[in-house]
Structure formats: C-alpha cells, structure tokens
Amino acid sequence: MGIWTELKLDRDRCRLAALVGGGGKTTTLYALAHEAALAGRRVLVTTTTHIMPHPRLPLTDDPAALPGLLARHPAVTLGRWDRPGKLAGAVPPEALPGLADLVLAEADGARLLPLKVPADHEPVIPRNADAVIAAAGLDCLGKPVAETCHRPERVEALLRVGPEHLITPGDVAEILASPEGGRKDVPPGAEFRCLLNKADTPELRAAGEEIRALLAERGIYGAVHSYSERERGGACWF
C-alpha cells in the first residue's frame, strides 16, 4: 500500500500539500513525491522553512527554469542555499501550483526530534494548501519531554507537565489534535492527516494503533507507518 493510500489522500485532486511536526517529514515528502511522479504527475518539492535537499533531484532557485526542468524530470526541487546542507524557500508556495501538477512543501522544523509543539511563528503553511500532514515519531514514547521533544517548553505547557514527564500515547494524540499543536494554522477546508511514523516494532505499532484510535475519537484520521532503513531520507526513490 502506498503512502497516499495509507493517508487517505487523493493525489489526483491534491495540488499543494504541506508537512508539519516531527518524526519523518522529509522522508514522507519524498515518498509522496515518488509515488506521484510514478503516476505521471509533475512534482515540485519546496519548503517554507528549511529542508535537506534530495541528492538526486534537480535543484533550482529560479521559478522561470521550472517548466524546462519539469519537462525533463518527474520531480524538481525549488529552493536556495541558506545554510550548510539546508535550503530555504525561493518563492512562496502559494504562487507555485500552476507550475507543476503537485507542490509538496515542508512547512515546519523539528531538528530531527520526533515530537514538537510549534512556536508562535510556526508552522508556515501555505494559505492555499489542499492537505496538511502532521507527523510524529513513535520513538518519543516513554521518553522525557526534555529529551525527545522540540520546543519542550511548549510541550510542557500544552500537556501541563514538567520536563521529566514520560511521553504517553495520550500525549501524542493530544499534541497532534490540538489547534496549538499539530492542527495549528491548518487552512479552512484543507484535509488534515496525522502520520504516526517509526512503528518499527510490534510494541510501537500497537502504541501507534492506540494513538490512531484516540485521534479517531476526535474525528482525525491517522496512519501508522514505518519506513525501512533504505527508505529513510528518500534517496532510494529517485
């Protein structure tokens, strides 16, 4: 089963999707891009914050170059070098859907940590996003807030706990479902999905299913997923 199907998103109707949260955003972005490209869609990968560029995708910071690149390549990255190893956005994604069949934007940062609550200026979701996917890594479970969360002070405030509190499935569901957490700034009318990533053991998959049930009680669809070691980072797909 592909990642679009797991997330119950229609890739033929989605024009702009944004990824937020922690725990697998970049890998998921490239998984979505890969499947859409295989289906014949022209895919543009970009960011509203920062992203690690895919080593095998063409990269440009010039929107005028996109039609030519997309005519020759199924997926292209649009961004500009902003810091070592990281790209920033070159053009607001709101202006991009007409240049490709699908735009995928990484719209949040978590410094490789599996769980986060965003700061006031985060996430940076395009206003015309059709879908928002909030990711969380199940490897946060059973670990202290201070150790496993990005912006731990925000997590502590939302959960009303201290820095040594051990993250539970209920905590993950509360963070993802909260308008101060995973649902922050989701545009009206956009599809909202949660990706419970890193279900790498039977125990973590069971915990992911528990979180998915808690989200379903709130009317939110979640998918429990695990990427292989080969898939992580997405280099194998292009």
Quick synopsis:
The chain has 238 residues and is α/β, with parallel strands linked by helices.
Structure write-up:
- With 238 residues, the chain is an alpha/beta fold.
- The chain is 26% helix and 22% strand.
- It is built from seven helices and 13 strands.
- The protein has helices at residues 3-6, 25-38, 66-72, 145-148, 152-159, 169-177, 202-217, and strands at residues 16-21, 43-47, 50-51, 59-60, 75-78, 80-83, 86-88, 102-106, 115-116, 131-137, 149-150, 191-197, 221-224.
- The strands form three sheets. The chain has an eight-stranded parallel beta sheet with strand order 4-5-2-8-1-10-12-13, sandwiched between helices.
- Helix 3 (66-72) links the parallel strand 4 (59-60) and strand 5.
- The model has no long low-confidence stretch (mean pLDDT 96).
**Number of E strands:** 13
By secondary-structure content and strand pairing, the structural class works out as alpha/beta
Unreliable runs: none
CA gyration radius, whole angstroms: 17 Å
Helix and strand element order? HEHEEEHEEEEEEHEHHEHE
What is the approximate shape? globular
Count of DSSP-assigned helices: 7
Cα(first) to Cα(last) distance is 19 Å
Helix percentage = 25-40%
Q: Let me know the average pLDDT.
A: 96
Topology:
Elements: H1 3-6, E1 16-21, H2 25-38, E2 43-47, E3 50-51, E4 59-60, H3 66-72, E5 75-78, E6 80-83, E7 86-88, E8 102-106, E9 115-116, E10 131-137, H4 145-148, E11 149-150, H5 152-159, H6 169-177, E12 191-197, H7 202-217, E13 221-224
Parallel strand pairs: 1-8, 1-10, 2-5, 2-8, 4-5, 9-11, 10-12, 12-13
Antiparallel strand pairs: 3-7, 6-7
